[in-house]
Amino acid sequence: MFDYKRLKLKIKEVYETQEAFAKAMSMGYTVLNQRLNNTVDWKAPEIAKACDLLHIPLDEAHLYFFTLKV
Questions:
Q1: What is the pLDDT of residues 24-34, one digit of tens each?
Q2: What's the whole-model pTM score?
Q3: Which residues in 26-65 are b (16+ Cβ under 10 Å) and which e?
Q4: What is the DSSP letter of 27?
């Protein structure tokens, strides 16, 4: 399981709400919620788009998408 705490904070910082970020990602809020709750895995193109929208350099994507929950 991955820890998306840092990603959630970045979403709030840039988009204020997860709903606004989901819209920018062209995905439903439910789909985003499934990703953030480890119910459904992120797809590589989604990670790339999220990094672009959130101004995360691709070489830092692992910090937001692949940090293991302890």
A1: 999 999 999 99
A2: 0.94
A3: ebeeeebeebbeeeeebeeebbeebbeebebeeeebeebb
A4: S
